[in-house]
Amino acid sequence: MDIKDIVGKRFPRFGVNKRQEIARLLYEISKKEDVSFECIIDGVLRGPTKFADIKDYLTRRRFPRRTASPGRFTAYLPDLDLDPSKKASIKKRKINPKNIYADKKSEKSPLSIRLKKAFPRADFKTITSLKGYIKDKRFDIKDHNRRRDNFFVVREGYDFFKHCPCTSKALSCGYNIFNLGFGCVFECAYCYLQEYTNSPGIILPSNIEDFFKAFKGTGRSLRIGTGEFTDSLALDSITGFSTMIIDFFRRHPDAVFEFKTKSDNIKNIISAKPADNIVISWSLNPQSVIETEEHHTVSLERRLDAAIKCVKAGFTVGFHFDPILDYEGWEIDYKRVVDQIFSALDRKTVRWISLGTLRFAPALKKTIEMRFPQTRILDGELAPDFDRKMRYSESIRIEIYRKMLTWIRERSERVPVYLCMENKNVWKSVSATSRKGLSTALL
Ligand code: SF4
After folding, report:
1. What is the reported pLDDT for 218?
2. Rounded to whole angstroms, how far apart are CA atoms 436 and 416?
3. pTM of the full predicted structure?
4. Contact 360 CB / ligand 1 (< 6 Å)
5. Cβ–ligand 1 contact at 282 (below 6 Å)
6. 72 alpha carbon to ligand 1 midpoint, in Å?
7. Closest residue by CA, ligand 1 atom 6
8. How far is the CA of 373 from the centre of ligand 1 (A)?
């Protein structure tokens, strides 16, 4: 029987909102503790009878650390809305789009030609424009799940690069986004791109030369990268973007360009002439997290092997522990990854390491739950925080960052370490942990 029906039967005198909150708490406790709803309800029915007391009992059980801390805690308890038909496919399969759409200005572009060669069985269609194509259509989670079937090659008109919006009230690291494509072929349970389920597929620009032209107009030094709205290298063997980017930025040494990836698609990179201002970065997590939460990406071992190869080819590398997850035993797993980095690489070749704990917009909670019902990330004690995003409590975050910084500093005093999307108080508390704390100057 559905959990909402069970709650309706067992608590018939409660109104709809109260039943929803109880169902939500029961669902989360049952998942986190791996016990049946019935078992939890039987325990509840032997205890308090008032709604406020039942909710209090369930909230304390679901969020033991939050409710034990001083101050008032309000849990975020949206209606439970599970729909098995919206589950994401996590079965490994090759990238093989069924449809490739090119707008009129892109149909004869080098990128369209490369895609035709790479995917000869795909159905190629010309569309007037992406805007025209999506105009009368509505996309939802099911379309998002099928996005690898539909590639779009479009001529980008103006949205070439921008300052990273970071998050409100956070200390920015000064990053800039080279907006080279939208949509990712990987399936990370926590990915914020799931907020954009109204997107029709994987969008690739056909006019990279216009991005370079737009960049020339800025005349200032900056830190810039492509990995915000897509993985920088997941499709690089097809797009060949990295070769052109390296070639361009070699001639612009004021800018530091970063490729950010969870792939080991580095063939083009290691064939290119290296440049000091090009950094190849990997997002890292323990292998157990990669297996359960970062579907279709490559293993930790393959990411580190790729980093070693890039260093051998003359590039410097970066690492992003983002998102760091809080679970029982996280310390052992994450410390091991820090040690693996410094055992594999000369510390002088590591350009920077960033740290960022799990965070996402509250609306994403239901999407994640629907797409990845097996995920463990939502079992954490998350609640809206300083920027209204779901986060671990500030004290948990500070503890995580302090430990991570200590382990990194044990291996390297010099590598710049910074926090991604964190507030000033957290920066200050974490930086004070070690003599050489966090870095704000990354250029
Ligand atoms: S690799 Fe990055 S962009 Fe791709 S699904 Fe994972 S989090 Fe999202």
Report:
1. 63
2. 9
3. 0.94
4. no
5. no
6. 34
7. 188
8. 18
CA atoms 430, 434, 435, 441: torsion sign: negative
pLDDT tens digits, one per residue of 285-316:
999 999 999 999 999 999 999 999 999 999 99
Distance 140 CA to ligand 1 centre (A): 18
Task: Let me know: does 373 contact 293? Beta carbons within 8 Å.
Answer: no
Ligand 1 nearest atom to the CA of residue 294, by list position = 6
* Distance between Cα 231 and ligand 1 center (Å): 6
| Sequence spans of domains, the chain | 3-80, 159-431
CA distance 380 to 161: 34
- Dump pLDDT digits (tens) for 85-129: 999 999 888 999 999 999 999 999 999 999 999 999 999 999 999
Assigned architecture for domain 159-431: Alpha-Beta Horseshoe (3.80)
Give pLDDT tens digits for 208-244. 999 998 886 566 678 899 878 999 999 999 999 999 9
Q: What is the mean pLDDT of residues 384-392?
A: 96
Token duo for residue 127: 């569309």
